[in-house]
Amino acid sequence: MSMRIAIVGLSVEIMLSSPAVTGLASLQLFDPQQMRDNDVWMVRGMLERIAEDSDIEAVPLFWATALPGGIMTAEAYDMVKAKTLDLLSTAGELDGVLVVNHGALEVENLDADADSDFVGAIRALVGPDMPIGVSLDLHGDMTPQLLEAGTVFSVLRTAPHRDDKSTGYRAADQLIKVLRTGIKPKKVAVSLPILIPGETAVTSASPARELYGSLPQFDAVPGMMEANILVGFAWNDRPWTKCTAFAVAEEDASLARSQAVKLAQSIWDAHEQFILRMETAEVAEGLKRALTSPQRPVYVSDSGDNTTAGAAGELTTVLQAALDLGANEDIVVAGITAPEAVSRLVAAGVGAEVELVLGDEHMSRPKTERRVKVRVEACADELDLGGFQPYRSKDAAWAKVRIGNVVATFHAQPIGITTPEHFQAMGIDPVAHKIYVVKLGYLHPRLEDIMARHILLLSDGTSQLDMSRLEWKRLSRPTWPLDRNFEWTPEGNIYGDAS
Ligand SMILES: [Zn+2]
């Protein structure tokens, strides 16, 4: 008997407070050929698993992603959703569907978790009996509707993320198991009222290391499919913003329940340990420390304006602080969103001297008016990175300028500078300079691999890390760390096949 498994998805992390709205122009769309050829996030692991079984055909249909950003427009969401449903309904006989989403999707005028809406629409189309495997980023949220809509789930287990391929592989493997055996998996989730910004849940440090490290033991319990942890997306003021522990068992609902409760309790027992475990500093102090550090290169992250969490990347606060340092060697400040400056710099061309006003394109924080003379060292209409890169914005114009000992890169659209290739594509050696400022929180794996030291700046901006400074209206309360010393039990926060 031969089987066909479709692969679709809409994977975008949305930060509601970000002014960088995610519209049609922000979307990166992958057709079936691109899904096969471009080493695509999660999809590549699914294709690898399906290829192991000669009687199963992978049917990649359509996948959409975007750099994390502000709320997705209804127009963009409706286009992707309609096209996905249309392709699924005209794909011929299917036996299962794999969905590659993120879990923190938010759409304008949709007063519901959008991942739940998306997977729910697929479920409504294919009917109650077709297995659906869902892969998610661990920074996503779970809801009763999403748990109901999917059949099996696999979630990333590393942050910074190094395991999208194996996560996609696991999702496909679980789906194939369901198809071959005909089992009806039972799913139970327990939600935890705790806000965990990703920087406090790095899986090389406690408590995330031990909690994520325990998951294979849950998976290995006879009768279990998988247990997973979603730390949630802490910055969004939504009722469904929570941490979730959930377990899927082959057929035994009481096993799923006991495993989900056990996992949730272990998270709750450790919740006060979700704090920053990396070197941190206020902006000026952190730059000074980097400059005088015996190590090089020092990578410094502007955590308040983290484009890979959805911030717009337009703040020049750290660039201005770098100019104030009066350093006697180069400091690279990369990845600033400034469309108007870029169009002037590109028009002026390499070698030109241009006067810029730093801060006049600020959106999420007050504008500033610092006038500087810059020399254009390089510029182009697009940044050619080749192939699939997570956290890449669509190709956009950019310019590299020099201001004394500071080298800055400006971009027409938000960009996540996450790999050495990003620097090399702009003619910047990613290790030869003393300091590199990037708009990230934790360092992404490829930069982690080349830095000698990392300092996280506790800078202001939409992705700033002090949750108590944000305005909360719709979040359910009590929630730690906004509220402390309250009672919580797994039994009071359980849903799914739990009765
Ligand atoms: Zn993530």
Characterise the protein shown here.
With 499 residues, the chain is an alpha/beta fold. It folds into two domains: 278 residues, Rossmann fold, CATH 3.40.50; 185 residues, no CATH class. The chain has 14 helices and 21 strands. The strands form four sheets. The protein has a nine-stranded mixed beta sheet. Strands 3-4-1-6-7-8 form a six-stranded mixed beta sheet, sandwiched between helices. A hairpin with a 2-residue loop joins β17 and β18. α2 crosses α6 and α3 runs parallel beside α4. The site of zinc ion has 3 residues, from loops.
Q: Summed up, what is this model?
A:
The chain is built from 14 helices and 21 strands. With about 500 residues, it is an alpha/beta fold.
How many distinct folded domains? Answer: 2
Radius of gyration in whole Å, from Cα? 23 Å
Major β-sheet profile: 9 strands, mixed
CATH fold group of the largest domain: Rossmann fold
Q: Judging from the principal axes of the Cα atoms, what is the shape?
A: globular
**Helix/strand class:** alpha/beta
- The stretches of 5 or more residues where confidence is low (pLDDT under 50) are none
Output the strand order for the largest sheet.
Answer: 12-20-13-19-14-18-17-16-15
Mean pLDDT: 96
Bound molecules: zinc ion
List the helices and strands and how they pair.
Elements: E1 3-11, E2 21-22, E3 28-30, H1 32-37, H2 43-51, E4 56-65, E5 70-72, H3 74-89, E6 96-100, H4 114-126, E7 132-136, H5 144-149, E8 152-155, H6 164-181, E9 186-192, H7 208-213, H8 215-219, E10 224-230, E11 243-249, H9 253-270, E12 280-281, H10 283-291, E13 298-302, H11 317-324, E14 331-337, H12 339-348, E15 353-358, E16 370-380, E17 398-403, E18 406-411, H13 420-424, E19 435-438, H14 445-448, E20 453-457, E21 494-496
Parallel strand pairs: 1-4, 1-6, 2-5, 6-7, 7-8, 12-20, 13-19, 13-20, 14-18, 14-19
Antiparallel strand pairs: 3-4, 9-11, 9-21, 10-11, 15-16, 16-17, 17-18
Helix pairs in contact: 2-6, 3-4
Zinc ion (ZN) binds at residues 137, 139, 161.
